[in-house]
Each structure stands twice: as structure tokens, then as C-alpha cells.
Amino acid sequence: MNTPILALVCFLQCAFTFALHFHPLDPLTPQEINKTSFIVKKSHLGNFKDLTFHYLDLDEPNKSHVLQWLSPNPSKKPPPPPPRRCSLVVVRAGGQTHELIVDLTTSKIASSRIYTGHGFPSFTFIELFKASKLPLTYPSFKKSILDRALNISEVSCIPFTVGWYGETIKRREVKASCFYRDGSVNVFTRPIEGITVTIDVDSMRVVKYSDRFRKPLPDSEGNDFRTKHKPFPFSCNVSDTGFEILGKRIKWANWKFHVGFSARAGITISTASVLDPRTKKFRRVMYRGHVSETFVPYMDPTYEWYFRTFMDIGEFGFGRSAVNLQPLIDCPQNAAFLDGHVAGPDGTAQRMSNVMCVFEKNGYGASFRHTEINVPGQVITSGEGDISLVVRMVATLGNYDYTVDWEFKKNGAIRVGVDLTGVLEVKATSYTSSEQITENVYGTLVAKNTVAVNHDHYLTYYLDLDVDGNSNSLVKAKLKTVRVTDVNKTSTPRKSYWTVVKETAKTEADGRVRLGSEPVELLIVNPNKKTKIGNTVGYRLIPEHLPVTSLLTDDDYPEIRAGYTKYPVWVTAYNRSERWAGGFYSDRSRGDDGLAIWSNRNREIENKDIVMWYNVGFHHIPYQEDFPVMPTLHGGFTLRPSNFFDNDPLLG
User: Fold this and answer.
1) Which one is catalytic: 57, 59, 312, 401?
2) First CA to last CA across the chain, in angstroms?
3) Which residues form the Copper amine oxidase catalytic domain (predicted)?
4) Quick check: is 312 catalytic?
5) Is 400 a residue of the active site?
6) 4: cis peptide before it, omega within 30°?
7) Rounded distance, CA 480 to CA 501, Å?
8) Minimal CA–CA distance to 123: which of 422, 427, 394, 398?
9) Confidence (pTM)
10) Order of strands across the sheet with 155-161?
């Protein structure tokens, strides 16, 4: 075969493979990222020397188009064309924020506008890196280090986002806090207390400098987070038939779904469907799911700490913070590893290797079992091992590491979990014993001269559930105590029992739910679909621990920005543009965009296309066992079928 024909055959094979495995929600390919940046640079924006790419992702196609393209085609008619591939781009140029839609089919900019609202796009790694080095050349900072008899070559500075506190904002800023390594690899445990460096990121210059006091440096001894033991590799010891990865689609057991990756959200699970063992057809469960925002406010109101109220996903990016997963440490030996691609500050595609892994997990228990002893002459035991499929990523955001799991169960459930670990954010103090403390230090003395500050963690999940279709409702199944009446007492000595009273949420105001004050189960149901015996099909939310909500006052500025943390559960009407709980522009936002604002529109949510939002929250009071590295803390929830199947799907 001659070379031109061979090349044509290879091209056609690649095109066929791409078409076979293509999904309209596939992340942008490296070629599409580079094509997008090329088109933007060829526009008038390319004339700006400070052109920087802050967001470059798939402009999500209309949901109806995606579902139409993915729907079965039993008539074998020509399938509809796939949704148009477009990029959503946010750049900074000339001191302004520009939003663009780039049509990748026509290679043209479909729309372009200057954003003039509150808040700024996420920071790039280059910006934060330059900001971290700036204090080291600033004369006043160099003098402060010299006055403390420290070696500036052993100093590391870390820029922190600053939030908003009612002021008129004119620039993008960070505040750098600095640390003294001096041989220690646990940088966060040795803060140089009292110094704050405010930096204008666009001009990359120091605009305010403060050196208010000095505190003894915490000791470098005893703060190494590295294990002294040989890492113990883990194995899932599964004997199942395995899973299949076709492009970005994954098929396993009775599940099929799409997995994506973006700089902002990290892992995104889409178009998840489960096989009905009776009909042998796949039924829709979830259209889209991902972590939408994090909120980590520290509870120290002093000048050096008050601004530490981080919204990491919007201010930097969960996917951009994803780490290269380590085989046999982060993921077991049977894992498959997946790469992600993001756009760098110059708009070129960057490969992030092994940022996701997929593996079968042995829960070392039973997914179901029973022993029956009431059949004469027999003891009958049956059951099945608990084997599931996990999609995992790890994001390291400064001092904390978050392991995010999406776990698919054969019983039709989706278990979503997050593990928190890493190192504490601490401040230096003169105290060496808790008995010496006579003031509020806003945390716990975890080592000599070391206070770990109280703080919260919230991870807000976006869950666009499509339970057997788009038209869904939120049902609150409340457990109510009932007194046995005098009429019934003639046949029973019982005085009470509980029953279930179901309430269907009508509007978004009804979709804001506090949990814990009364026994209730929350279900997303499809009121238009019934089981064979007439029950409404649905999925219910099962939190893994008592939900945590914000304790900050409503008028506190961090709470104004993160008002979505006041309720653990929100249900809103679906809107393609409403995916980020803290608003699209989180940095220095004012709380005038985001989940709490959308919910206040009070749209109808009964028998509509709706989205559930769930906050996995932690109030973290530090303890000495959390130092110098914190043992993993787990949180999460399960979405479990509830009258979705006609019987236990594990029995086939």
C-alpha cells in the first residue's frame, strides 16, 4: 500500500473511532484548546501585550440537543447532527475582563463582550507564582526579615485571595503571608507572623505593606509530614469482569456514564444511566454532577487573618489544582488512569497526566445477604459481595488535600465522598502551653508556639438529576408521630406509631431545606413515571453525617458572598448558565450572583427540570492529632434508588 493511501486509511480509522466514541459533553481536546486560543489571538485582543487566558472550556451545548443526540434510534433514521462545538473563553486584556464564545466549526468568534459586573476571573498559576516572589525583592520586607535575623533565601511567600469587605474594588489583589523553611518541608507550619504584603496582581507591585508585630517562630523539629514507614500499597482484590472505557464513556456492570475534566470543576460525571433488569433498558439518573464551589473561612478576625475566606474553585480551580495520582498510594493496582487537559495562561493546551483514576472497589462486606432458618430442615444463606466502581481525583489547594470519589453501586446507588487531609494553617504565638493562654487565640495550641486556627470546609455539589426523564419534583417525606385513638385501643395496647407525610415542593423557596430539626427523607421523583404496582419512581438523598451549615452572621461579608452555605440542600430550576454556587466570578465577588440569588427568584420546581445542590460541610476544631499532618476526615452522601426499580436490581 503506498504512503498516501495508508495515510488516508489511518485518517479514516481515527475519524471513525472519534465518531464512535464522541460525546457532546466531551471536554475540549488539546487541538480545540489551541484552535480557540489561536482565534482569540488573531482578533483585536491579540494586540494587547497583557492578554491572559483565565477560563477556556467547552461552552456547554443545550441540554435538549445533547439528549436528542444521545437518545436511542430504533428506526435507524439518520441521527441528528451533534451539537455545535463552541468554546467559552474569559481573558484579561487592557485591564478589562472579556467574555467570548468561539465557534469551532466556523473558526469565528460568535460573541464578545466586556464584563463590567462585580468579581474577577480566577487567578492563573503564573500570576500567583510571580506574586509569591515579589515580597522577596521588596525593600521593606527584606528589612523586616533582616531585623528578625532570618535568612531571606529560606523564606517562602504564599499569596492568598482577599475576598470583599464592603469596599469599592478597583483592582485584583492578593495578600502574601510568608514562612521560614530553614530545612523544614512543611512550609505552612513556620509562619513569619505579623507581616502582610498586599499586591496588585495586574501591575504586579506591592500596594500596601504591614509589619505590626513579631512572634517566635515555631520549631522546625517535629513538623515533618512525611511518613517514617514504607508506604503500604492497597489492592481492591476484586474478581469482577471489569469496566470498559470508550473515549470518555465508561461502562461497568449495570451503569454507563460519561466522565469529563475541567480546570474549574475537576471531575464531571454526565449522562449517568442504570440498566433496568426487567426491561433490559438503560434509564436516566443524572445528567451532570460535579463539585461546584468550596468555601473555607477561617475564624480569626484579626488583621493578618480576617481575609482568609477562600472560595478555591472560583478563585483558582479544583481541576487546575489536581495532582498526579500515585499508583498503589492514591489508587489501587487495578486502576486505569486518565489525563486531563486545560488551557495555560497563554491559551495553549496543557496536559495534566494521571489526574483521574477508575477502579473496581471491594467493600469487604455484603451488598445484600440473608440467612433463613424457618424452612424446616434447612439453613439457607445467600448474598453478594459489595463490589463498586470508583472515579477519583485529588486536588491540593494550598495546605489541604481533597480526595473526591464518585462511586457507582450495582444496587443503582451513587455514593459521593470527599476525604480531607493535608496540613493545618497555623499562626505563630508566644504560648508554649495551653495553661498560659489568657486571651482568645481563635484556635488550638497544637505545638509549642503554634496555634491552628478554627475554620470551616464546605464543598457544594451540583447535581442535575434527571430521574427517568427531565420532569422531576422534590418530595419531603416527613416522619410524624401519631397517637393511637380510643377507637383503635380496643384491639391494641400501643399508644403511638409514626407515619409518613409527603410534601411536594412547589417553588424554589420550598427547595431550601434545613436538615436535622425533624426526621425527613428528601427524594427527587418523576411524578409522571410509576412502578408496576403504582409507586412514583425516585431517588433519595442520604447524608453520611448530620449536615453542617454556616454559623457566620448573615451580615458578615464572607457570608454575603457564600450565602449558599446557610442551607445544606437547595433545589432550583435548571438553567444552563447556573452551575457555580458562588457565582461565575468568585474572586472579590459581592454575593450578587450565585445559588442564593438564583433561588430567590422563586421559580416553580414541581414537575420541572430541576437541580439539587448539596453542601458537604465540616466545622474544624483543630486537635493535636491533626499536627503536623491531619489524618483523613471523611464526608459525603448517597443518591439511592427509591421505588425506581420493581424490586432489588441486584437479583437481576
Assistant:
1) 312
2) 50
3) 241-650
4) yes
5) yes
6) no
7) 7
8) 398
9) 0.94
10) 155-161, 173-180, 195-200, 205-211
